[in-house]
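Lab notes, practical 5.
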Amino acid sequence: MIYKVYYQENALEVPVRENTKSLYVEGESEREVRSLLKDRKYNIELIQLLEGNHLEYEQASPNFKVEEL
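Output from the prediction step:
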C-alpha cells in the first residue's frame, strides 16, 4: 500500500501550513510507515492511505515518487 505523509521537517518548530511537505512511502500499515520515518525526526501531521482514484490522481503528478526506506 502507498501512503502520503504530510510533515514538517523540524519537529521542534510550530507547524505552519506553508512549510508542510509531503512524501510517498510504501508500507503495510500506518504504524509501519511511522516506524520507517522515526529516524528522520519529522513532525508528522497526517499519514493518508492512497487507493483507487486518489492513487491514480497522485501517480499522474510529476512529483510522484515513492521513497525507498
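Observations recorded by the TA: The beta strands are 2-8, 21-26, 43-50, 66-67. The helical segments are 30-37, 52-59.
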